Amino acid sequence: MNARYGMIFDVDGLIGDTEPVNAKVTIRILDEMFGLKGVRDEDFTLGYGRGAEAYVKAGARVHGLELTDEQAHAAAEIREHRLAETIRKEGLPAFPGVLNLIHAALKDGGFRLSIATSATRELSEAILTAVKVPFERMAYVSGSDVRKKKPDPQIFLIAIERLGLPASRCVVFEDAPSGVQAARAAGARCVAVTNTVPADQLAGADLIVASLERVDLDTIRNLVDAGER
Predict the structure, then answer these.
(1) pTM as predicted
(2) Which CATH class is domain 5-17+93-227?
(3) Coil, strand or helix: which one is 208?
(4) Which of 46, 47, 149, 229 is deepest in the core (most CB within 10 A)?
């Protein structure tokens, strides 16, 4: 069977429940490097899905510290390595439904799959390995492969090209507003999951769900085919 549908998965907050460890590690780094106290998990909200440097800057900005690009880059590099080490050591839970959906699609000859994440290759592989995603059977684009971060569509455009399908026949799975914007800018369909932010911040997605347990392959087929009628 020739593949007719593409599925493109974000990683942080979509496949792996990374936000608690993301925040914990970044809070520690902001304290160690810049003496910033009192940073909370929710202070990173405006950095969700935009890459490590934007995430670090978001947490600092809430407390009146505007990091330079050089400072944010240095902090982000340390953060990515520490996160990968922590996840390899402590493990990580997958969000409900995502592994079943990936395995079902890989068994079905009608689908091609890709990873597309703003995280570095090192960190994203640590996450995918921890939650047992068979990423070696999927196309793979990481933050290490792109110059522009979401909401720029570059990462999804590359994933779509590697899948060899029209953008309109690809569905991006996201949990962050910037990811939804990037998916739509790339011309793809988008399923957004409220793992990280509430539904009202994911406006623009074709479908918003509380869990990927509510999504199956027929959901994807119907979403793509309806858009071409």
Answers:
(1) 0.92
(2) alpha beta
(3) strand
(4) 47
